[in-house]
Write a structure and sequence with these properties.
The complex is a heterodimer. In chain A, the strands form 2 sheets. Chain A has a 3-stranded antiparallel β-sheet. A two-stranded antiparallel ribbon of chain A has the order 4-5. Chain A is 19% helix and 21% strand. Chain A is of the alpha+beta class. Chain A has one domain. Chain B is an alpha+beta fold. Chain B folds into 2 domains: 335 residues, Uncharacterised protein PF12979, DUF3863 (TIM Barrel); 248 residues, Beta-galactosidase, Chain A, domain 5 (Distorted Sandwich), CATH 2.70.98. Helix content of chain B is 22%, strand content 30%. Chain B has 12 helices and 29 strands. In chain B, the strands form 5 sheets. In chain B, strands 16, 17, 18, 19, 20, 22, 23, 25, 26 and 29 form a 10-stranded antiparallel β-sheet that branches. The radius of gyration of chain B is 25 Å and the shape is globular. Chain B starts with a strand and ends with a strand. The chains are: A alpha+beta, B alpha+beta. Chains A and B meet through α2 and β4 of A and α7 and α10 of B. Bound molecules: zinc ion. Zinc ion binds next to α1 of chain A.
């Protein structure tokens, strides 16, 4: 194969992201997949997006809106 | 002063944005695009009625177009024109200095001075006046002193990125050298000894007001990547803290910062500073340009609306410095930060004063999980030619994430200050008692009162409450453990207040030789021999590597001890001990002093 390049967006490796490492993936034109040069993750764009969604599992309040008062934060209804 | 939420909004025109160059491939058109991004940022601010501080970069001083743009925005909108020491790289810089270095604190002192003179001189040539604000990711004490000596017009500087150290380095695949943990999270007046350390008074006042690069989440950045959780809309996208085009977290973060006013005399603060590379047309990682632009636009609208509602005061950096000197000066700052991201009920208490910076975790019964001994006013020269070329963090004595806290893998101990409670041969640590707290200010001190927790020690149940006192101007922290109730009347529990510590700036161990441990009148020279010495009175550790003397004492007659570590546990422990029954309290003090 010829050398890999960047895909249409600079997708980061979802597996490395979950261990707090931002590392751009490269795109393998022959296999039509992104791959990480540090860990062993590789996958299609669809798989990357799905894994990115998974990476958000820890942000349980990500879409909540809070108000702050003396007793702490209260979720806005 | 009452309920003043101040915003410093900073924009820098870069002709070779450091991020875009690599990710967008550099090349022709980048310069125009970069100026367009700066113009967009300025427009979004002005449309929302906000004024900015334009921090001119060295490269932008060679563009008459950008210089005219800055002059015109200054006239039209009252924007301050300052001078950044970021954004040095450009053809002119590279040809003159023959290096790719771009972080001011990493150059040799000689080069630092040369570059500062060059950049300030060029600024004067363009504008006919001297700037009143400057900055970098980090500005070391020697650079600040030089700037103050030569350009006394400078009143304010971006001087550090809060908790950007080993975590940011790790996130960037160990290639981004902003190793500068350990400073205050909100503006302060730096001491002449060390930028991280707030000045005590006029005698060590560096004559500038320092502001942090961004306002960051005081829980998320303590453990996670510091860059993802701050007042930087594109960093929030970088952290994937959004779904579709919604990122309420950004506004929760701003609002929690606003809430700090309640504990700091009505004053609260935000700093937003987005470099143009973060808004580049090719998108940034998985976020397309449209989302990058929308997030910036939404942030400006949010601040703009707060201003319209009379809840925000936008200031230039220099204007803010004058306000800060008049209203805050050398005051301490404190806050009980609540988790707004992970859905836990965790809260961290943060405290910053000229004597110390520390963090207490309510989820671990109020254990101290970070301690920086500002009292030792450590002088650390940095840059090429010193032993700290890149690394400018202020050392810790306790950092429960870098050097283990309560939990270790089967052997050894980690850094933390907590207490154990024992009865009838059963012992438990306060670190395993999850609780919450209330923070209040009274009689010149911050009082952090925790909800009582329960210990089950064999047949005995004991309810214990912890209260921590931080007195303004004091180099001590007072800890009170109250035995509220014991299930067996007349039972006495044994409370051991302890601090396990070491020193360092990273995750890796440092040599412990030279440390002296003193209990009462007995002294141990650290030799990794796992020894314990008990006495009555005060226990102390002298750590010459960070010029610090740290001690603990309780009341006269209380037992104390020092414990030496060993090679697999390169720590030391100080402790004071008391038996207490229902209705009794155990008061103890942690004290920091400079050791020469
Ligand atoms: Zn990877």
């Amino acid at each position: 194969m010829a050398q890999a390049g960047k895909g249409k967006l600079n997708y980061r490796c979802p597996s490395c992201f979950m261990r707090d490492i931002d590392i751009d993936m490269f795109y393998d034109e022959d296999k039509k997949e992104y791959y990480c040069i540090r860990c062993c993750y590789h996958g299609s764009e669809e798989d990357v997006l799905q894994k990115n969604q998974m990476a958000r599992f820890r942000y349980k309040s990500m879409l909540k809106r809070f108000d702050f008062d003396d007793d702490g934060q209260k979720e806005r209804k | 002063m009452k309920d003043t939420f101040i915003l410093n909004l900073v924009h820098r025109p870069e002709l070779n944005p450091e991020y875009a160059e690599k990710t967008a491939g550099g090349g022709k058109g980048l310069e125009d695009e970069s100026i367009d991004i700066f113009k967009l940022q300025q427009r979004l601010a002005h449309e929302n009625g906000l004024k900015t501080t334009i921090q001119m970069t060295y490269s932008s001083l060679f563009s008459q177009y950008v210089v005219d743009l800055a002059k015109s925005d200054h006239q039209k909108y009252g924007d301050e024109i300052g001078l950044s020491l970021l954004g040095l790289p450009c053809r002119q810089f590279n040809e003159k200095y023959r290096t790719k270095d771009f972080c001011i604190w990493m150059f040799s002192l000689e080069d630092r001075k040369r570059i500062i003179d060059d950049v300030f001189g060029k600024f004067f040539e363009c504008f006919g006046f001297w700037p009143e604000s400057t900055g970098s990711y980090y500005l070391d004490a020697q650079s600040i002193a030089y700037i103050e000596e030569r350009y006394p017009s400078v009143k304010c500087a971006v001087a550090t990125c809060w908790e950007e150290g080993p975590k940011a380095y790790h996130t960037c695949n160990n290639s981004w050298y902003t190793l500068m943990d350990g400073g205050p999270w909100n503006p302060w007046i730096p001491s002449t000894c060390n930028t991280h350390v707030p000045a005590k008074g006029p005698e060590d006042d560096s004559h500038i007001v320092a502001i942090p690069h961004l306002s960051r989440d005081l829980i998320a950045c303590f453990d996670g990547n510091g860059s993802n959780f701050g007042t930087h809309p594109q960093n929030v996208l970088r952290g994937m803290v959004y779904e579709g085009d919604q990122y309420p977290y950004l506004f929760n973060l701003i609002d929690q910062y606003r809430h700090m006013g309640k504990y700091n005399g009505g004053y609260s603060y935000n700093m937003m500073f987005v470099g143009p590379g973060w808004l580049n047309k090719k998108g940034r990682w998985e976020a397309p340009y449209s989302l990058l632009e929308k997030s910036y636009s939404d942030a400006m609208a949010y601040y703009g609306n707060l201003k319209k509602e009379g809840k925000l005061c936008d200031m230039g950096m220099s204007e803010f410095a004058s306000w800060f000197r008049e209203n805050r000066l050398y005051s301490s700052e404190a806050f009980l930060w609540k988790d707004i991201l992970y859905g836990s009920e965790k809260s961290h208490f943060w405290y910053s004063s000229p004597s110390m910076r520390c963090c207490l975790d309510m989820n671990q019964g109020g254990a101290m999980i970070d301690l920086r001994p500002y009292e030792s006013k450590l002088v650390r020269e940095c840059g090429i030619g010193t032993s700290h070329v890149q690394e400018v963090s202020y050392p810790f004595l306790i950092q429960a994430n870098y050097r283990a806290g309560y939990f270790t893998h089967y052997a050894g101990e980690g850094t933390v200050k907590s207490c154990t409670v024992s009865y009838g041969g059963v012992k438990a640590d306060m670190c395993l008692c999850r609780t919450k707290a209330v923070l209040r200010s009274e009689d010149g001190q911050r009082v952090l009162e925790l909800d009582p927790v329960q210990f089950k020690l064999g047949e005995l149940v004991a309810d214990i409450q912890s209260v921590f006192y931080f007195r303004e101007g004091s180099n001590e922290v007072k800890t009170v453990r109250k035995v509220l109730r014991t299930s067996i009347p007349d039972a006495k529990v044994c409370i051991t207040e302890y601090m396990t510590a070491c020193y360092g700036t990273t995750e890796y161990p440092e040599p412990m030789d030279g440390i002296k441990l003193i209990a009462g009148d007995k002294t141990l020279d650290y030799q990794y021999k796992c020894r314990t010495v008990r006495a009555v009175g005060c226990c102390t550790a002298v750590v010459p590597q960070v010029e610090c003397k740290v001690s603990m004492h309780a009341s006269e007659g209380d037992e104390c001890f020092v414990k030496e570590g060993y090679a697999f546990s390169p720590m030391f422990t100080l402790g004071v001990v008391r038996n207490a029954g229902q209705g009794e309290v155990f008061e103890s003090w942690l004290k920091l002093e400079k050791a020469n």
